[in-house]
Amino acid sequence: MLVLNVKKYTPLLAVILTATSFNTTANSDYDFISGGFQLSSFDEYIPTALGKSYDYTTGYYLRGSWNFYNNFFAEVRHDSTSKDSLSITQTTAGLGYFHPFTDNFSLYGLVGVDEIDVQFDINKFVHQADISISSMNGYVGAKDNALTVELGAKFNVLDAWQIEPAIRMADYDEKMYELRLANTIRITKNIGLEANFTHRALGANTFGQVQNIREMNYQVGMRYTF
What we know:
Layout: H1 6-9, H2 12-19, E1 32-49, E2 52-69, E3 72-83, E4 86-102, E5 105-121, H3 122-129, E6 139-158, E7 161-170, E8 176-186, E9 191-206, E10 209-225
Antiparallel strand pairs: 1-2, 1-10, 2-3, 3-4, 4-5, 5-6, 6-7, 7-8, 8-9, 9-10
């Protein structure tokens, strides 16, 4: 089984700040870090605490891309949302290759590893139920990882507006697919505003029955381009 350690990949976001200074052929479309707020909306209510269920979670997202050699780039994406005792984290790390057709349009492919981590905070459950059992302190949940592939494009509609449509698949026991449309509005040469929309669908096998869980997430944040 593949193992993806979020902490191992997070430093890439900081390394990009210095490493790209050695790359004289860097493409600015693939050299950036970004992050901000995320709202995840689900197509059905999911349990978030004892006797509670909601159809949304909120949190943050981070993304970093490094065009380290010619047309090759490395990328890490991480988003984490929560509600009451429930937290959902997804991380993608991979290597990609892009082909620029014009100064304003390029296609890319990416291959990497995807990880989903769903956790319940038992401390909150115990407190809400007025139970005092020390052995129940901590977290329970599920974590899984899989190979993932992505195809996408980056297109400058205007000098200050770039759109990025992409489709991604992950090879879990029940396949996951993701459709993403990212938008970046450039404010200055290096600073931009992001508004991203993502649809995910993942089949979960529960007691022999496959349930399709669909998520729509909305991201608003800032991007720094090198």
